[in-house]
Amino acid sequence: MDIKLVDLVTLHNRLKPEIDAELEKVFATSAFINGPTVGELEAALADYLDVKYAIGCASGTDALVVALRGLGIQAGDEVLTTPFTFAATIEAILLVGATPIYADIDPKTLNLDTLKLESAITPKTKAILPVHLYGQGCNMTAIMAFAAKHHLFVLEDNAQAFGASYGEKKLGTFGHASATSFFPAKNLGAFGDAGGIFTNDEALYQKMKMIAQHGSKLRYHHEVLGLNSRLDTLQAAVLKVKLNYLNDFNAARQKAAAWYDAFLADANLQTPQRDKAGSHIYHQYTILVENPGQRDALQQFLKEQGVPSAVHYPVPTHLQPAFADEKYPKGSLPVAESVAERVLSLPMHTELTEAEVAFVCEKIIAFVGKR
Ligand SMILES: Cc1ncc(COP(=O)(O)O)c(C=O)c1O
């Protein structure tokens, strides 16, 4: 059985005629930068999330940087976030000159533990940056109440949960702004790097749009320090087609997750824990084993059986040399540190079959046993 961790090829082959037609339109006009398709996609994305404004940009990392700049976050400011995320979340905070501060994560959802927020903030804290990890939202009710109480900006990192909801609303619509990634393997993926920013605030929208386009509204007139972070028209064309299928993609992932849940129900490990207040769109299906040595041995065993897997993420951000801060030595965020040694992401994509999931689970149970 040829099991893939991610299968973009089969997905592409299904959508190829439609995507080719959209790409041809861009080639025909050669409007490669700021072509009309970019605006069409932005309108469709805003409509999909039910927000007023969307801005396409060059990557999810840039989306975070531009949004933080738009919110006025700068040197001397602190941004409260999770230590259990992809590096980009922390890079963005540091790149605008601010300092990341952390609250530990919830051992079940692996998202920010909202009970730990109060003790983490200081008078310098200006914003909170929740990350909706693996496709499931943070507790946005608690986070919005906390932010209102302390007058913090809220920037959602929605790179892994675009299309998931929390309560009645889509994630990425709660904060002052949200940023997402359209990295190819994301639930809505382009054919290269791409990202987006979302807001309901018109002044913030205008500012962020300007920052992403060299700080300029009128060509060759630069009002603020900006950068070049436009979304390519070709990427917009791909995303425009795929957006029409995003709900189907997410439903296919949910179906695969339900098979995993069923086959692993008695396995001696923790399957992804759902927060019933929201939906989960399984950007990753990530299990948690008992101890670190077991995780690495299980990954090796699965590899030998032809089952690919991945670790998201092996090192929490406060322990990464690039972001180290003496305020957060080893042991300071124990839940994130323990989880990083025990997580394993299983094959998850739109094309998985029940037989493939059954095969993966059979191998896992052969290794970890049943409870
Ligand atoms: C949580 C999170 N934040 C930010 C990013 C950055 O996105 P990109 O790779 O498009 O720069 C990613 C994706 O890679 C991510 O998973």
TrEMBL record:
Does Transferase show up as a keyword for this record? yes
Record's keyword annotation contains Mitochondrion: no
Q: Origin, by domain of life?
A: Bacteria
Modification type N6-(pyridoxal phosphate)lysine: residues: K186
BP GO annotations: polysaccharide biosynthetic process
Question: By its UniProt entry, which PANTHER family does this protein fall under?
Answer: 3-OXO-GLUCOSE-6-PHOSPHATE:GLUTAMATE AMINOTRANSFERASE, TRANSAMINASE
Q: Which family does it belong to?
A: Belongs to the DegT/DnrJ/EryC1 family.
Q: What is this protein called?
A: DegT/DnrJ/EryC1/StrS aminotransferase
Q: What is the lineage of its organism?
A: Bacteria, Pseudomonadati, Chlorobiota, Chlorobiia, Chlorobiales
